[in-house]
Write a structure and sequence with these properties.
Helix content is 32%, strand content 39%. It is an alpha+beta fold and 72 residues long. It has one domain: Alpha-Beta Plaits, CATH 3.30.70. The chain has a four-stranded antiparallel β-sheet, with helices on one face. Strand 2 and strand 3 form a beta hairpin.
């Protein structure tokens, strides 16, 4: 399994976290999404590395934006 973390701007509540989680879970191969609201970090676990463009699109669809890839 591959883990990648991203700083996501604009999240401030549980609803925000759920929206981002729902969109990312729709990506092929994603098995888990963990959101740390305080740190504004989203960690995605997937079978294979995810293209950054796919992650950006999913987060944007939820109404937020990826500021940077933190680590993987």
């Amino acid at each position: 399994m591959i883990k990648a973390s991203y700083t996501v701007t604009g999240m401030s509540c549980g609803h925000c976290a759920q929206s981002v989680t729902d969109e990312l879970m729709e990506l092929s191969g994603v098995s888990e999404v963990a959101v740390d609201l305080e740190a504004k970090v989203v960690t995605v676990t997937s079978e294979n590395p995810l293209p950054d463009a796919d992650v950006d699109a999913a987060v944007t669809e939820a109404g937020y934006s990826v500021a940077e890839r933190v680590f993987s």
